[in-house]
Amino acid sequence: MSPESTRLQGRTALVTGSTGGLGVAIAKALAAEGARVIVTGRNKVRGDAVVADIRSAGGGADFVAADLGAGEDEIRRLATAAGDVDILVNNAGVWSSPEPTANITEATLLESYRANVVGPFLLTGALAPAMVARGRGAVVNIGSITGLIGGDKSALYNSTKAAVHSLTKSWAAEYGPAGVRVNAVAPGPIATERAAEAADHVAPVLARIPSRRMSTPEEVAAAVVFLAGDDAANIHGAVLSVDGGWAAV
Ligand SMILES: NC(=O)c1ccc[n+]([C@@H]2O[C@H](COP(=O)([O-])OP(=O)(O)OC[C@H]3O[C@@H](n4cnc5c(N)ncnc54)[C@H](OP(=O)(O)O)[C@@H]3O)[C@@H](O)[C@H]2O)c1
What is one GO biological process annotated to this record (predicted)? Predict the structure, then answer.
């Protein structure tokens, strides 16, 4: 089977955290539009399986192992291995379960910020200049509804995602004039295999939001494909909610 569409033919997309969860759906959706996808994460077994799935569906993909929390040498190594990247999706991130601020140690704080903020910051800094030099490119950051609102005992995770939204707007200002668009998707709860972990936390919310349900990974991936492609040619610095209406009500 060949890719379903050719909207992203000839482009290379790097999707962080594409060894599991939402990132797998994003990698597959970009490949289905013709992009060659670089799958990355720490787990080679799961990464190789995603690559095999994409190839067996007629798409192009390769795996590069990297730990985005390991600092700038590791991130530079990933960027070098990736080569010319046209689409960067900063998806990898870690969720922190609700915890009183006073209980959060410096180590936990730094671990979360390393994965959710420092990693995307350094990787974008490593890849965007080459996009600027070519005069085109797209970066899509995965933020969260939690970056748009406050949350009881959620200061850590919510603040990392607010930082992702803020970076999206500053990078739009920095890179947009050179032809590189930077946008974000802000998902609400997503029905991934790990959704059960947050089920108690999100149940009261789902009961009152317009759609009354979580998003599927494919619904969030569709928004990423839109922002990465030419249909979004004049969209810069947007934070697109895919949250069943949570942010609106
Ligand atoms: N799930 C939700 O309901 C939800 C809602 C809103 C926003 N989001 C956001 O969506 C994104 C994906 O979430 P998810 O639910 O799909 O998470 P997930 O199932 O836990 O998957 C996280 C992915 O990130 C990778 N990853 C984590 N730490 C990493 C590190 N230090 N270095 C490299 N890769 C790392 C993991 O790969 P390895 O294990 O192979 O390293 C995995 O592929 C995150 O940014 C999250 O904040 C999720």
Answer: monocarboxylic acid metabolic process
Ligand 1 atom with least separation from CA of 161: 47
SS (H, E, C) 204-225: HHHCCCCCCCCECHHHHHHHHH
Helices and strands in the chain: count of H runs, count of E runs = 8, 7
* 136-185 pLDDT per residue, tens: 999 999 999 999 999 999 999 999 999 999 999 999 999 999 999 999 99
CA Rg, the chain, in Å?
17
113 is a catalytic site residue: no
Nearest atom in ligand 1 to the alpha carbon of residue 193 is 19
Mutate to test the pocket of ligand 1, among 19, 48, 202 (most ligand atoms within 8 A of CB): 19
Is residue 92 within 8 A of residue 68, CB to CB? The reply is yes
Vertex 171: Cα angle to 110 and 101 (nearest 5):
25
DSSP 118: I
Q: For 23-48, how does the pLDDT look when each residue is reduced to its tens digit (9 = 90+)? A: 999 999 999 999 999 999 999 999 99
Strands 180-187 and 239-242: parallel
